From TrEMBL:
This is Sugar ABC transporter substrate-binding protein. It comes from Candidatus Sedimenticola endophacoides. It is found in: Cell envelope. Residues 30-51 are annotated as: Disordered. PROSITE patterns: PROKAR_LIPOPROTEIN. Keywords: Signal.
Amino acid sequence: MNRHRFPVALPRLFLIAALTLLAGACDRAPPAGEGAAPAATPGTAPEPTPGRRVALVMKTLTNPFFVEMEKGARQAEREFGISLIVKTAAQETSIQQQIAIVEELVRERVDAIVIAPGDSVELIPVLKRAQEEGIVVINIDNRLDPDFSRKNELLGVPFISVDNEQSAYRSARYIADQVSEPATALLMEGIRGALNAEARKSGAMRAFAEHPAITLAASETANWKIDEGYRLMRGWLQRHPDVRLVFAANDMMAFGIINALQEAGREDVLVASFDALEQAREAIREGRLQATVDQRPARQGYLGVQFALRALDGETLPGVTYLETILVTRENVDQP
């Protein structure tokens, strides 16, 4: 076994993901000047309105990313004096469960639904029903499909997230720039059909395509999951033993990749990912991960609630708000 092991083996990564539900991490401020759409300003912040009920619907709490998202929403709950209802599906692939959650919230007649949808299309009809009942809908993280939304007359839904394509491009480009000789690259996708997953795939493919020495040998999905990422990487190592670069569309899949590489004794493979979970930052410190992207989930959760209250107050909101991301590498991993 190599002496620079990733700090936790695969079974313990599941434990750490659970423990992260209890652990805190501060939201990090972005660098200035990267051209994000303006977020909410203090002058437009809603006044405290006791009695309003805002629901935050997320994909799961098994991914620490969404734990951080809830923390931001809870901060908004305290600041604005509203009641926050948090609902999650069992897994990021549990789309029908998310639909059932929204149906329940419509029956409960909440004032607003802030949703990070697991799928960009399937949630649209039920969210249209919510809108018809006078419930404000705010979309965060993964974008609802604009064309299908228009077709179903789900209109005027603000979207808060990051530029997934450009951010994934920067992450994959970081490892691509480290090779000068012919190299094989692999791309591990998120859930196919989810617009954030498709955008990250597109960004990584663009980064690899810009380097004539790099050949993208495979692009497959592991559905955002550690265990699927681990199994897929084990198979890839057999089919593509010459692999030098791997981009994973989120950190959870990257953890599976890293463990498969460690088991195979492969220290020559460069891995980049997306989400900047604390375990990913530790992997960067240990040299097992080269780059990840901080997309500020707590800020997304906070602004989702704030935008919901502003919409309830009758304010016209921007259609798209992009937060600035931070490319986290060994050079800045310990910066506050």
